[in-house]
Amino acid sequence: MESFLYSVQNISLSPRSLLTVGYTGGRNAKPSYESVCGGDGHTEAIQIEYDPEQVSYDSLLDSFLQGHQPMRSKAQYKSAIWYHNDEQRKIAEQRMEETGAAPVVDVDEAKPWYDAEDYHQKYYDKQNCTVM
Predict the structure, then answer these.
(1) pLDDT digit string (tens) for 79-103?
(2) What is the spatial distance between Cα 46 and Cα 19, in angstroms, rounded to a whole number?
(3) What is the rounded CA–CA span in Å between residue 18 and residue 51?
(4) Is 47:4 a contact under the CB 8 Å cutoff?
């Protein structure tokens, strides 16, 4: 499995993909929802572990771009893609340039990941909501 991080809720993945809500990119080694809201530098994000034999990196970027309205914001809500290798970086940067999203979507090297609290995991399922 490979990992892909980005801050968006709306994606379509195979059942074998694992989605985890969490925090990344900040300076607090033990972030919580409260510390992130307080400005500790972390971004609320989704980590996707996926099988590249079933889901391509390009299709993840397509989902990101189709289901997300990129904008500049404070760190908690910034539009970003965190890459894990040089190939992901090059593909993400090229796609953001091609689509005009580069000025508002950060493409950064993956930083340490921290799972969000349990009550944030599968939030939409728990609320009986669907994400379009």
Answers:
(1) 999 999 999 999 999 999 999 999 9
(2) 7
(3) 10
(4) yes
